[in-house]
Design goal:
Blueprint lengths: L9 H9 L1 H11 L26 H11 L2 H7 L1 E4 L8 H5 L4 E4 L10 H16 L8 E4 L17 H7 L2 H16 L5 E2 L23 H6 L2 H7 L15 E5 L21 E4 L1 H17 L5 E4 L3 E4 L8 E2 L4 H11 L5 E2 L13 H11 L4 E2 L4 H13 L5 H17 L19 H14 L1 E5 L12 E4 L6 H5 L19 H8 L3 E4 L11 E7 L20 H11 L4 E7 L15 E4 L8 H7 L44
Parallel strand pairs: 1-2, 1-11, 2-3, 3-4, 5-7, 6-8, 7-10, 13-14, 13-15, 15-16, 16-17
Antiparallel strand pairs: 8-9, 12-17
Helix pairs in contact: 2-6, 3-15, 4-15, 7-16, 8-10, 8-16, 13-14, 16-20, 18-20
Length: 645
């Protein structure tokens, strides 16, 4: 649905100016081109600067900001979960909401591109019903493709992309993610995660590109893929606003420092000296701002405790004015806006008014208050009226948010351009994902040239992760935690193997007879999890399961050549099992295109992947990182064997 904001006749424009809300509702009902924010403006505002797309964004921001009431400004600082307004969409208008989001698994029914676009356009219509017709910014977690949409192209998680060492490929994967996401309505994604994973026991390890800040920084081409190569690209219908997260240090927390339920590392405390923090945890954000112009940044749930003072006084990132304002905004020069994580300010000390006041004054600009938007707005308004939050701080926050909306072209094109929907999950997009899968595979052992396999071989495949696309996609796939089973369209690793070798047998638990086979392929690994739910010690371990160990023993003990693939979001402990294998491959979480795994297994593509993290000998060895004084991993950071094509 292509919008033409300047293409109406004089009569049509006058009619639009007089009855914008009615025309918008009619357009949505009959599928016609809906009115834009500028077209919906009352007749008395038709000459206002903020509605003139020919003027610089900063001039438009100044003009609009000067017309807003404090209540309208606070509305722009508020983001609600879409389910909180779904039963009464008029709340978008009455609360003057600046943003909505879909949390993990918060999808329309049916979960289709059209249903997404219809839903978001319906919300947008309500936003344009407000006095100043400020468009809504809709956010979503497109962290490895448009992963909330069934049928989207699902790429490997970031840890697999880090293994590729291919910034151009990462940029292209992000470009496809942006195009598929924007074609369904959202204009903003909470990605990429530029955390530096320093402890593989963390349940978010797979969201990191690796343990080395230099590698993470190198992979920030993802920001360019999402936003474009210049600020002008943001107005295109195949680009989205990116979010670098989670500022800063969330991959570097101390084990056992989290106070959130059973979490061990996630949302914990980064206990560090300032030099380590600067070179490891902060470095990727400097590049995200100065080299890639990222539009938004999400502060972490985690805290920082500086070791220099020797006190032990951690400060939550949402309350850290030094880091959010003095360092990020002023010293580094970030001119985008800060969005809080889900209910993050509720973890701050004090009552709710104190939490709101502290976070706003620390520098947070937009607040993800999924189910308490109205309470947040009332509370912040009271703080402003009492003089505990200045109007200057409010204006700074809203200026940053409006700047992003003007840069995205939302005032001219508030509704979904659906022209790219046909390419969602297309063969061309899936081919890029398949390439990413192939490049992400890390060959850690290959005795006797067990790999590549030959199509003529009789192959015995075992292990539950061989034929489970939900497991190979991992968390953040359709739902927050992800789930096992046939959750998305795509190709499993087993299907990919069968495309190359006709004589393939599959037995998940290796109970079928093993006689007469040339090669055994065992696919082990993890089942899906996300965030601190996946922390080791919170029901999870780096040890491979007893079932996986039994299958390895059974197959590798019976078939002469045995290849083991590990489908997981982090290294697993295979020190004892490794001698039983001829070849061992880390497959990470490949996503929807399992055929990319078979491409390297059969030599259609060479193995080129390198470890983005150090591989521990035992769980007790964590945290282990390249550069440690006592560095003795099973496989070193950067290790990876190659094969010829």
């Amino acid at each position: 649905m292509k919008l033409h904001p300047n293409g109406t006749t004089g009569r049509a424009r006058r009619r639009t100016l007089l009855g914008g809300a009615l025309l918008a509702a009619t357009a949505l009902a009959v599928g016609a081109t809906p009115v834009t924010a500028a077209q919906a403006a009352p007749a008395g505002q038709e000459a206002t600067s903020y509605l003139n797309p020919r003027l610089p964004a900063e001039q438009r921001v100044r003009d609009l900001l000067g017309r807003m009431t404090v209540e309208e400004k606070i509305g722009q600082m508020t983001q609600a979960e879409r389910n909180s307004v779904e039963s009464d969409r008029s709340r978008i208008t009455t609360l003057a909401l600046g943003s909505l989001l879909s949390g993990g698994g918060s999808t329309p029914t049916p979960n289709t591109p059209q249903a997404w676009a219809d839903m978001i356009d319906g919300y947008q219509k309500r936003a344009l019903d407000t006095r100043l017709h400020i468009p809504l910014l809709y956010g979503i977690d497109s962290v490895h493709g448009d992963n909330n949409l069934v049928g989207a192209t699902v790429f490997p998680h970031n840890i697999g992309l880090g293994a590729t060492r291919d910034p151009d490929l990462v940029r292209e994967a992000a470009r496809i993610t942006a195009a598929e996401t924007r074609a369904t309505g959202p204009q903003w994604v909470f990605a990429p995660c530029v955390c530096v994973a320093r402890d593989d026991r963390w349940g978010r390890t797979y969201e990191s590109y690796g343990e080395d800040p230099a590698l993470v920084t190198r992979m920030e081409t993802a920001i360019d893929g999402l936003q474009g190569d210049s600020p002008r690209d943001l107005t295109r219908p195949d680009r989205v606003l990116a979010t670098a997260k989670h500022f800063a240090g969330d991959g570097d927390t101390a084990y056992g420092s989290s106070t959130n339920g059973g979490y061990k590392l996630d949302q914990g405390v980064t206990i560090t000296d300032r030099e380590h923090f600067r070179t490891v945890d902060l470095a990727p954000y400097v590049a995200a701002v100065r080299e890639h112009g990222v539009g938004s940044i999400m502060p972490s749930y985690s805290s920082v405790d500086w070791t220099e003072d020797g006190i032990g006084n951690p400060v939550k990132m949402s309350a850290d004015k030094e880091l959010l304002t003095d360092v990020l905004k002023q010293k580094i020069g970030f001119d985008g806006f800060l969005i809080s994580d889900w209910d993050a300010i509720h973890q701050l000390p004090g009552d709710y008014a104190t939490q709101v006041r502290t976070a706003v004054n620390a520098g947070l600009d937009m607040f993800m208050e999924p189910y308490s938007a109205d309470t947040f707005e009332r509370t912040l308004l009271a703080e402003v009226r009492a003089g505990r939050v200045t109007t200057a701080r409010i204006d700074d926050a809203v200026r940053r948010i409006l700047r992003a909306k003007f840069r995205l072209g939302l005032f001219e094109h508030p509704y979904t351009d659906r022209s790219g929907a046909a390419a969602i999950g297309s063969p061309a997009h899936r081919a890029v994902a398949r390439q990413a899968v192939a490049e992400s595979q890390v060959l850690l052992k290959n005795d006797g040239h067990a790999l590549p396999l030959r199509p003529s071989q009789r192959i015995y495949v075992a292990g539950t992760n061989a034929d489970d696309i939900g497991n190979q996609a991992g968390g953040w796939t359709v739902t927050w935690q992800g789930q096992s089973g046939a959750t998305i369209p795509g190709t499993t690793i087993l299907q990919g193997i069968r495309q190359n070798a006709a004589r393939t047998t599959y037995s998940a638990d290796a109970s079928a007879p093993t006689d007469g086979y040339d090669v055994g392929v065992v696919v082990i690994g993890e089942t899906p999890y996300a965030e601190g739910v996946g922390d080791v010690g919170n029901g999870h371990t780096l040890e491979i399961s007893a079932a996986d160990r039994a299958v390895i023993d059974r197959v590798c003990g019976a078939i002469r050549t045995c290849v083991v693939l590990d489908v997981a979001g982090r290294p697993q402990i295979v020190t004892d099992e490794l001698p039983r294998t001829d070849a061992f491959v880390m497959s990470w979480l490949p996503g929807s295109e399992g055929a990319g795994v078979s491409d390297v297994l059969f030599g259609k593509r060479p193995f080129t992947g390198k470890l983005p993290v150090s591989w521990p000998r035992s769980e007790a060895q964590e945290p282990i990182n390249v550069g440690d004084k006592q560095y003795d991993p099973l496989f070193a950071y950067g290790f990876g064997l190659s094969t010829r094509r």
